[in-house]
Amino acid sequence: MDSPNQPIASPTDPVIPPEIPGASPEGASPSPQLPIASPTPPVASPDRPIVSTLGSDVIGSMQSLMGTVVIAVFVITFIVQAFQIPSQSMENTLLVGDYLLVNKLCYGGRGPGDHLMPYQKIARGDIIVFHYPVDPTQHFVKRVIGVPGDHLRLVSKKVWINGKPIDEPYVRFLEPPNNMFRDNFPRVDIPALGLEGKWWLEMRKLVEDGQLIVPEGHYFVMGDNRDDSQDSRYWGFVPRENIIGRPLLIYWSVQDWDQSSPSSLSGRLYHLAYAVTHIFQITRWNRTLRLIH
Predict the structure, then answer these.
(1) DSSP summary character for residue 194
(2) CA–CA separation, 29 and 178 (whole Å)
(3) Considering the chain, what is the average pLDDT of its residues?
(4) Is 164 considered catalytic here?
(5) 230-251: per-residue pLDDT in tens?
(6) Cα–Cα distance, 41 to 19 (Å, whole number)
(7) Which neighbouring-strand residues pair with 238?
């Protein structure tokens, strides 16, 4: 039983809150607060940013390299390609040791879009690079002499097209007109040394009144060094699909030192080292960066 003398708190009696440790009594000055230390950020391992940066650099370099390769492949495939002149058949227009950039877009691709683009037509006098019809893995460079529909013949080395002689200021002659097949073409009565047998049979069917008729889609080509050129006289026409493009310029020209490049690896390395260390002596500066006409 409760004691009758025990006081009972009424609802209106003030309630004293329990004392909070560290709190100042009312009216007293507050006790000084200790500064609360902010959490220290975690220190990254010194290896982590280096690996991350290195990985990013490698990925970025690979992306740049792949982009360069893609652009180079696109350019070589569709726009320009480099070739070297290995023979004397185009002298003096092109010399052994000339390095060419060939425009592969100038003639188009014989597709529907060719009519919408400002492509050129293959014309007489154009210098072209093409796949050799007898062995398409080889590339030849010659000058177009006859286009489809032309009636062509040579009389004492002079070229006649459709009954008229043509002017050829670029031609080089080394010998007098003493070769009956080479200098008086076409000849169906006598063969010649180096003549392709298949072409010999085909040519006989395309000669009328002593003139060779160039069929549709084909071109008759010859070298400017007319007396020292294996050309359409000996192996036939160049099909349109074999033509790669037209040379733009000689981007580099070197002396005849590189026409007998050795076949062994050590020989080629020595050859390359010699070229690098003697580049100013072997370069034909008067031909380098020359436009080709």
Answers:
(1) T
(2) 129
(3) 80
(4) no
(5) 999 999 999 999 999 999 999 9
(6) 37
(7) 219
Determine contact, residues 98/121, Cβ cutoff 8 Å: no
Which residues, listed in sequence order, are joined to residue 291 by a DSSP beta bridge?
249
Q: In this predicted structure, what is the pLDDT of residue 119?
A: 72
**Which pair of structure tokens corresponds to residue 253?**
């020209």
Question: Which residue type is seen at 140?
Answer: F
Q: Which member of 24, 29, 89, 264 is catalytic?
A: 89
Right CATH number for 74-291 from 3.30.70.20, 3.40.1580.10, 2.10.109.10, 3.20.20.110? 2.10.109.10
Q: How, if at all, do strands 139-146 and 127-131 pair?
A: antiparallel
Buried b / exposed e along 147-181 (16+ C-beta atoms within 10 A): beebbbbbeebebebeeeeeebeebbeeeeeeeeb
Question: How confident is residue 80, by pLDDT bands cut at 50, 70 and 90?
Answer: confident
264 belongs to the catalytic site: no
Q: Are strands 243-253 and 127-131 parallel, antiparallel or unpaired?
A: antiparallel
Q: How far apart are CA 201 and CA 199, in angstroms?
A: 5
Neighbours of 70 (CB within 10 A): 10
Q: What is the DSSP letter of 237?
A: P
Can you name the residues that pair with 225 across neighbouring β-strands?
172
**Higher pLDDT, residue 253 or 277:** 253
User: Annotated catalytic residue: which of 104, 142, 157, 253?
Assistant: 142
| Separation in Å, CA 165 to CA 144, 151, 152, 159, 205 | 15, 12, 10, 6, 24
Mean pLDDT of 110-120: 61
Encode pLDDT of 9-62 as tens digits. 444 444 444 444 444 444 444 444 545 445 555 554 455 555 556 666 766 666
| CA separation, residue 179 to residues 79, 95, 120 (Å) | 41, 25, 36
pTM: 0.71
What CA–CA distance (Å, rounded) separates 159 from 182?
A: 12
